[in-house]
Amino acid sequence: MPKPSLAQRLAVAGSLPSLRWTASAAVAVAVAIGAGAARAAESPGSGAAAQRVVLPAGVTPDHYRIDITPNAAQRTFTGIVDIDLTVHQPTERILLNSADLVIDKASLAGEAAPPDIAYDTKAQTASFGFGHALRAGPHTLHLEYHGQIFEHASGFFSLDYETPAGKVRALFTQFENSDARRFVPSWDEPGRKASFSLAATVPADLMPLSNMPMTSSEDLPGGLKHVQFGTTPKMSSYLLFFGLGDFERIHRMVEGVDVGVVVKRGDAANATYALDAAADILRYYNNYFGTHYPLPKLDMIAGPGASQFFGAMENWGAIFYFERILLVDPRVSTEADKQRVYTVVAHEMAHQWFGDLVTMAWWDDLWLNEGFASWMQNKVTDNFHPEWKVWLQSLAGKQSAMGEDARDGTHPIITPILDVQQAAGAFDTITYTKGAAVIRTLESYLGEDAFRAGVRRYMHDHAYGNTVTDDLWKAIDAGSSRPITQIAHDLTRQAGVPMVTEASATCSGGKTLLELSQGHFAIDADSTKARLWHVPVTVATLDGTSAKEVIFGAAPTTMTVTGCEPVILNAGQAAYFRSRYSNAGLAAVATRYATLSADDQLGLLNDTLSLATVGDVPMSTFMDLTRHFPADADAVVISALVGQMQVLDHIYEGLPAQAAFRTYARGVLAPVLAHVGWDKVAGESDNTAVLRDDLIAALGEFNDPDVIAEARKRFERYVGDPSTLDAATRRTVLRVVAVHADTASWDQMHALAKSAKTQVERQELYGLLAVAEDPALVQRALDLSLSGEPPKTTAPGMIGAASRRHPGMAFEFAVAHWDQVEAFLEPTSSARFVPRLVAGASDLQLVGKLDTFAEAHIPASARQDVRKADANIRYFAAIRKDRLPEVDRWLKSQGS
Ligand SMILES: [Zn+2]
Fold it and tell me: Exposure string (b/e) for 6-17, b if CB count within 10 Å is 16 or more?
């Protein structure tokens, strides 16, 4: 799944245009600064495996023959499954996963009497007792059952949408991490691979979809048909997929694979962008992985709706996407949307190998899927679209990850997961984004060719199997003279952020001697435990001479570089560590800031702000960088600066000095917008379009009167004639108006939401109703969210959108209506929703309130997000109390 892609864009921009709303928005804002307290749990090691809540190993599935009959109108279905299984040790009982299913009939081939069926709702299992030991060897279990079709995106679910002919319902499935058990009784654990052949009885005029192509279709009376799909290779249950709807499919053959995009009828024109992307990417991956994509077809399926916790899912051969991140609609999609569609397609397709062909044995190693796919999406995107500078963009993601990794609630990349509730919490920034940053560190250290050779060996050796992380390191080290296992272990088995400190830089005899030492970036007094890493360090002088070394231990290490120019630490910013310069070194580099590469400019900005927020360097050092910001800096770097200013503004919320800060921020950013302009200029770079959006949104938030007036003017024209706003500025204009809405413009926006042409626009407009500064309007939006008027999957997004500016209100509302709100959320993810509403707050009272809520409503194993939110609130509160006064003094010294 591509969860943090939203968060990454947020961290780049810090702004919250409508499509970026999620409850995690506040978290992303929180981590953009990238620092904080750490009390990271160390990996407890092998003891954890024994405590896992897993099925017994004595019986394993080999093949499932599933035949389902959905009743879309009633949102129910019936199923029949025959499971070929192997009994390894004689047992009286077969135990498998089953949740929200009723098993009506059960039998085991060769057994005269049906088994006793017992359910354990909490463990999500069903057991079949035979009263005597079953012999070791193959058996076939036959089950007839029925279950529910949900309205939230987990298990078997429906998405309703409007068409000119009325409301239409489409069906999909979503099983990661552990919801196949709501569709078919199964061994629903990633390590229990089996093959699947799925059949279904469906209305004859609809298009059914699964992982494999349809092999037969037989008409039945009553306007029905019975369809059979081909047998999958051995795979994990969470990758199974079924979909059904009034769809269209566009497709193309690419290296022998039928690649398609499936959309609801009428949307085909918006699907070609994704199909083109997929065709490029498939060729690249076939070569990169050295193992060709093994299924006959690869579909990308667009569903109208939203989830708070995922945007797409890598079901093998049948990737599901919410349509806003697969389709490019020329009326509403922005440049940032196009880049996101491309990278999400790249992410999900990388999973077809990393995740689907080779799968982690258990959720402890989830990062093998997600960290790798998050890295690979940048690798392939940079190959085809170097102009987007995705590696430079990825530094914002790394900044987010370092922020989370330095606070309480972080965890080692490889982390013990005991049960499925806890597994849901592992889909986080550490797993995805730190994981990707660590892969980048290692590839950069080892070299592209040697790294790829190791990945090819790993794919070849483990195809259709399950692995642990060390299998990857072994495969890479097997063909290389430069072992990475030690560096990899240090970065994946312990939490926290390494920090390389420059004690001194001395020039002598035409060389610079750097004295470096290693520490640990964290401020929490509880975090006194020393951790050390083997860190590959690259340094370079400003004229480009560089040196590389792996440093280990706290004792000073000396590195030598030719020349006496100022020296950049972590030159190119490919490695995962924070750089802390000596005062003289920082002054030398800051003076020449405009001459640094864009990567190093952004690296310095990120490190300086993070160190400043914890008091390691004065806030004035960061503010000085913003004052001297080069006017011709790369658009990505300016976007990052915009995001950082928005975060500071967010922490200033309600303080008297906020006005002075905003005046200063407008003074820095308004000239950039004046240069970039409101409208697209022929020949401008794609990233300039992204920057324009970010600038307008930020200046709108900072109460820039010209920006607000211009946005209102454009909005008035748009209400009269929607064609007057093009896709590039439409969303940002709507957002600025929504933030500053009065009753009249809120009502106008509400009317637009009700009459929106597409589901994506409807979702977006309903969300905008909740971003107003005026609390009375936010309250109206909150009340509206549960009224039944907005689409079902939109309600949580509206509450999430409200939390950005009014976290306390959003929290109180969600808690007061918890029964209703919870019903809108996916069950394995509901533990995360409320903590994320307050994660961007700086009001310490919310810590206690959140903890009280968690005690009552969140299982103990699923409270990772509570710890993270608490840590972030404390962090923001500390910045507000201790650091903002420094900024106030700096602003006064500038005459602001
Ligand atoms: Zn993923």
Answer: bbbbbbbbbbbb
Token code pair at residue 231: 């047998």
CB-based contact 157:76 (threshold 8 Å): no
Residues with Cβ within 8 Å of 176's Cβ and at least 6 positions away in sequence, in order, are 1, 238, 239, 310, 313
pLDDT digits (tens, 9 = 90+) for 406-459: 998 899 999 999 988 888 888 999 999 999 999 999 999 999 999 999 999 999
- Whole-number Å distance, alpha carbon 25 to ligand 1 midpoint, is 19
Asked if residues 34 and 402 have their Cβ atoms less than 8 Å apart, the reply is yes
Reported confidence tier of residue 45, pLDDT bands at 50, 70, 90:
very low
Q: Rounded to the nearest whole angstrom, what is the distance from the C-alpha of residue 213 to the centroid of ligand 1?
A: 23
pLDDT above 90 as % of the chain: 85
Q: What is the pTM of this model?
A: 0.94
> Residue 430 C-alpha to ligand 1 middle, in angstroms?
13
Distance CA 194, CA 85 (A): 9
Buried b (16+ CB within 10 A) or exposed e, 813-830: bbbebbeebbebbbbbbb
Rounded alpha-carbon distances, angstroms, from residue 453 to 255, 345, 484, 589, 851: 22, 24, 14, 37, 48
Other beta carbons within 10 Å of 216: 11
pLDDT of res. 523: 58
Residues classed as catalytic: 348
- CA atoms within 13 Å, Cβ hemisphere of 531: 26
Q: What SS3 class is residue 789?
A: coil
Which region holds residue 53: left if phi is over 0, alpha if psi is between -120 and 50, else beta?
beta
Distance CA 789, CA 783 (A): 10
3-state helix, strand, coil in the chain (%, to 5): 45, 25, 30
CA distance 725 to 712: 12
Q: What is the pLDDT of residues 356-374, one digit of tens each?
A: 999 999 999 999 999 999 9
Q: Is the pLDDT of residue 24 over 70?
A: no
The model's pLDDT over 456-515, given as tens digits with 9 standing for 90+, comes to 999 999 999 999 999 999 999 999 999 999 999 999 999 999 999 999 999 999 999 999
Indicate whether 27 pLDDT > 50: no
Residue 270: asked if its preceding bond is cis (omega within 30°), the reply is no
Question: Which among 363, 468, 467 has a CA at the least distance from the CA of 417?
Answer: 363
How far apart (Å, rounded) are the C-alpha atoms in residues 53 and 190?
A: 13
CA of 450 to the centre of ligand 1 (A): 24
